[in-house]
Amino acid sequence: MKRRTLPPLNALKAFEAVARNKSFSLAAEELCVTHSAISHQIKQLEEWLGKKLFIRHFSTISLTADAEELSLVCTQLFNRLEQCVFELTNKTSEVEVVIGASHSFMANWLIPRLEKLEVIYPNIHIKLMTCNDLKLLEKEKVDIFINSISENHTLPNFLNKYLLFPDNMGPICNREINPLHTKNDLLNYPLLHTYSNKSAWHTWFDQSKINFSPKANDRYFDSLNLMIEAAVSGLGIAIAPQILIEKEILNGRVIAPFGFIYCDYNFYAMVRKNNENRDVMNIINWLIAGEKG
Description:
Helix content: 40-55%
Largest sheet: 5 strands, mixed
Number of strands: 11
Strand order of the largest sheet: 4-3-5-11-6
Number of domains: 3
Structural class: alpha/beta
CATH superfamily of the largest domain: Periplasmic binding protein-like II
CATH class of the largest domain: Alpha Beta
Order of helices and strands: HHHEEHEHEHEEEEHEHEHEH
């Protein structure tokens, strides 16, 4: 095992204090040691480096060019170390982060991956809240809100959004539906909708350059999962996000006869700017990488 080639930490600590205060006496006072102890540490460091670090004048000191460079690095690293130690000593043993999202996103994407997240961040207690309302994020009821929105959607200034993955959509149905040769054939069947995204079929047909109007025999459901079950039962043809239907396709419960297309919508993780702390951002970064994993 390779050992680090570094001078004694106490010598670096003494040097950083002297360089920052431009005074041996003030450094000794700050570190609660004697003037001679500081001088001893500086001498030890100079011998270790083989370089002079300070130019002593009648009543002041100045840093050599080498010392200026070392001082800058030492101050930055000690500041970072001090901040890290402060966060470690002041954080609670377990932090709660509330994630809000639709029931379908929870059930079909997040929950199957949740165990991996808890293994990576065991000190973060993840609380899931089913919701479709951005106002719960604004009212600080949730810390992270995940939803599919248009890429041009404007959020309030106090919120940030982080792209997770595209919300590609496509028609799905059971295998017993008569063969669909063209996209226009879809109009011969009852189409299945969710109340939470009534415009999904409109958006998909617009992207496909097909005129569309809802029909009397179309059906509407409270959730994506109910709509999927209706499609499996042969009640019609549903429109669903690829990211949330992949498991059903792999299991052979439904097929996607025309694949999936991008419809100008993406899944985003949204947060309040004043709540972008380390734990929240760790989860968001995990969510961003989650699709790749």
